[in-house]
Design a protein that fits this description.
Two copies of one chain form a homodimer. Chain A has about 270 residues and is an alpha+beta fold. In chain A, about 25% of the residues lie in helices and about 30% in strands. Chain A has two domains: about 80 residues, Arc Repressor Mutant, subunit A; about 150 residues, Chorismate lyase-like (Chorismate lyase, 3-Layer(aba) Sandwich). In chain A, the strands form three sheets. In chain A, strands 5-6-7-10-9-8 form a six-stranded antiparallel beta sheet. In chain A, a hairpin with a 3-residue loop joins strand 9 and strand 10. In chain A, helix 1 crosses helix 3. The longest helix of chain A has 15 residues. Chains A and B meet through strand 8, strand 9 and strand 11 of A and strand 8, strand 9 and strand 11 of B. The first copy, chain A, binds a DNA duplex (19 and 19 nucleotides) through helix 3.
Chain lengths: ~270, ~270
DNA sequence: TAGTGGTCTAGACCACGTG
DNA sequence: ACGTGGTCTAGACCACTAT
């Protein structure tokens, strides 16, 4: 297959031993990378480039096998890993689809606050602020930007069942989220990440969170309807897109009376 | 293979189409279970029964394939999933081993508190209390016991770099942890779960945590060297062993100044 | 050199969803 | 009836580890 390098030796019985046509400087074989990993990379490229968009179906395994000139089993293993990474979703009998932040499943992946009673508590978002400014040194570092690069700051309040429960401060790189306005944010229903992937082609793949217990300062306390000094869950998140590039910094304050942050250790 | 039921039809070219010898009441074929899942179950049984103990090597893939009368590929898929579940650890060129709570890797799987500076902060455990009592209604429910069944209560303090950082209250079913004494606890170095698996044959497979921010009550505050009312992370954990049987309830209070609870969303 | 897990292939059949 | 992903097999070779 084209564009693959460091392919060791030859295989068993394939009809075409895959001669030449490599890109450039094949470089002996210092690092060995399995074929299916390379296929995984190619599929990821197609996802990133938007060849297959969120929610759409991707070509069948046999079709991809033909395109990449490998066996179906190799494509299967690549897709298996991408599905495990939540980039693709397999549906038996139908096909393989690009994952979306709109699915039920994906909701609680990034907002893990549940009610004590386990019941459904529909939450709505109230936009407090959306403005563009220059990145502080700290935010710039976390977003891998230069200090004073443009960023977007969003502040919002999440109400669970009418109660103010989560206060979020969200920083985004201005260059990526160019057309993001308060109006668009105010009118949009549903998960923020669903809008990001639909309107800006930026998919949040994974995130890391640092969680602490803090005392509410007066400003935060006021917005969350709790007394100053009230214990809040502080959640510092950095979200990453393809290539592990950070594209969001988020600081959240959660009221955890009646709600808890759910985590599974496995 | 023996002890497999609900095996649909026959396969392609295997020499022995696997005739009869089913256990009892094969029941048409209402629920389909893939062969590799059944193999997974058999391997899990051997793990649970102690045929292969933590840290030990298990038979090779070809050997297991022979034992279960399936192909190596099927055993491989079963082991793949068990390795993904952290029950087994594969080591290329050496073999497959039963996972242990002693490995570096496993440490931060169940205690996800990290220092702000990312440095190594060795923690030591100080036993406060270990006594046997009858389960409260709440604890009994969570451990799937009858109220007033015997339980063991352990209270301990974790010091990070000399600072009291975590206070734990741990409830265990008395029937399972029969010979557990304060002396044994006091003398044991290393993770509690490592002792549990070595001394009581009880392996913690997974756990769920409910995390909240709470104000320290005077007793807890005193032990953790913080003022009463200080914001603490409250971590309610239930741990499960084979067959998803709950075998530990743990309530922890974490001081999160200088430390944070690390979580990865992926 | 021998044994283990890891990769890759090819082909057959099964379960599921849709015409 | 057909196409999709899902399972199972069998065999070859590669990479790593130990002896």
């Amino acid at each position: 297959m084209r564009a693959m390098s460091a392919n060791p030796a030859s295989n068993a019985n394939p009809p075409a031993p895959e001669s030449g046509a490599g890109a450039s400087a094949p470089a002996a074989s210092p690092t060995f990378s399995p074929l299916y990993q390379q296929i995984k990379g190619l599929i990821t490229q197609s996802l990133e480039s938007g060849e297959w968009k969120p929610g759409e179906i991707i070509p069948s395994e046999v079709e991809l096998a033909g395109r990449y000139k490998v066996s179906q089993g190799t494509v299967r293993k690549a897709i298996d890993e991408l599905a495990a990474d939540n980039l693709l979703v397999r549906r038996q009998g139908k096909g393989t689809f690009v994952a979306t932040h709109n699915e039920e499943r994906a909701q609680f992946r990034f907002l893990r606050l549940l009610a004590d009673d386990g019941a459904e508590h529909p939450h709505i978002s109230k936009l407090l602020e959306c403005r563009r400014l220059r990145a502080s040194a700290d935010i710039a570092r976390q977003l891998d930007l230069k200090p004073s690069d443009p960023v977007v700051l969003i502040r919002r309040l999440l109400q669970f069942d009418g109660e103010a429960t989560v206060l979020d401060e969200i920083w985004l790189p201005g260059a990526v989220f160019r057309g993001l306005t308060a109006e668009r944010l105010a009118e949009y229903k549903g998960p923020l990440y669903a809008m990001f992937e639909a309107d800006f082609g930026t998919r949040m793949i994974r995130a890391t969170e640092k969680i602490r217990a803090v005392a509410a300062d007066p400003a935060v306390a006021d917005l969350l309807n709790v007394p100053a000094g009230f214990p809040l869950l502080s959640v510092d998140r950095v979200s990453y897109t393809y290539g592990d590039r950070p594209v969001e910094v988020r600081r959240g304050w959660y009221v955890t009376t009646g709600y808890y942050y759910q985590n599974d250790l496995s």
